[in-house]
């Protein structure tokens, strides 16, 4: 499922718009703030432009330049701070105290999760007898929404998550049965560079998700290259997690002779990063 073709280039606008649309008039007048490595930032920024809400977004200094530029172009004031998602959270809460803005969470929120869950309903419209749905995981909002939507209609569907081996807090929590964090270093799947899963999303994942696998940086790159070469689809690292897991063979027991949906969650990637991954010279 090509969420890289969605407005803003990722699925994130679904949850952001649903959350913002639920705000009261008084809350909208306060203005909002969000923190994000890029895709939630764009979803909030465009949604605020559509709804006439003033917005600020805190992004890490390491965020891809294309995501920063797009966020600013849509409407939001962008504040660059720190080098990780956790750094942006602390800065956002500092600004909430100073300016009394409404915080728009990237994943750990019922309205955001419900917005992402519309993807699950669309999957069933196109493939009602699907057996498996493979979903990238960062903080867990996407897979939580999809799992709720699909399992409420067909409890037999396997919902399988994928994380990067460098940053897999949700996978670690899922397999060890307790709320944990994990991050050794950054990942090419920057959109899923979330070391600590959401508390709400963890509870949903624990109950409804079938399995979570982790993939290496090389496997993610292979997934991205395969999508470009064979399918003519450009994705960011996070967007290729599901494809990477399938190509790695780690899901063979689930997908062999079964109807499987692989979710491409986003396609916001700098051209320079594509050149680096494919080994091609960047053509200006």
TrEMBL record:
Coiled coil feature spans: none
GO molecular function: threonine deaminase activity
Protein species of origin: Hafnia alvei ATCC 13337
Protein name: Threonine dehydratase
Key words of the record: Lyase, Pyridoxal phosphate
Broad EC category: lyase
Domain (Tryptophan synthase beta chain-like PALP) ranges: 1-266
Enzyme Commission no: 4.3.1.19
Protein family: Belongs to the serine/threonine dehydratase family.
A Pfam family assignment: PALP
């Amino acid at each position: 499922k090509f969420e890289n073709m969605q407005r803003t280039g990722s699925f994130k606008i679904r949850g952001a718009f649903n959350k913002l649309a639920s705000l009261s008039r008084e809350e909208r007048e306060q203005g909002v703030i969000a923190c994000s490595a890029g895709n939630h930032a764009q979803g909030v920024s465009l949604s605020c432009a559509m709804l006439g809400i003033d917005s600020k977004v805190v992004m890490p200094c390491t965020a891809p330049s294309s995501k920063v530029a797009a966020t600013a172009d849509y409407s939001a004031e962008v504040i660059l701070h720190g080098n990780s998602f956790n750094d942006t959270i602390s800065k956002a809460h500092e600004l909430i105290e100073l300016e009394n803005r409404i915080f728009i969470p990237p994943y750990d929120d019922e309205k955001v999760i419900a917005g992402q869950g519309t993807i699950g309903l669309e999957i069933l419209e196109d493939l009602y007898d699907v057996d498996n749905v493979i979903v990238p995981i960062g903080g867990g909002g996407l897979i939580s929404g999809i799992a709720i939507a699909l399992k409420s209609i067909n409890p037999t569907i396997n919902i399988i998550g994928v994380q990067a081996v460098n940053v897999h807090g949700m996978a670690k929590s899922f397999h060890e049965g307790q709320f944990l964090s994990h991050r050794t270093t950054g990942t090419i799947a920057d959109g899923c560079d979330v070391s600590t899963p959401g508390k709400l999303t963890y509870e949903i994942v624990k109950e409804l998700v079938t399995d979570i696998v982790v993939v290496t940086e090389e496997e993610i790159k292979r997934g991205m290259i395969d999508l470009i070469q064979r399918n003519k689809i450009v994705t960011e690292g996070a967007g290729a997690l599901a494809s990477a897991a399938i190509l790695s063979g780690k899901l063979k027991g689930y997908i062999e002779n079964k109807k499987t949906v692989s979710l491409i969650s986003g396609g916001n990637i700098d051209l320079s990063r594509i050149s680096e991954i494919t080994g091609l010279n960047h053509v200006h």
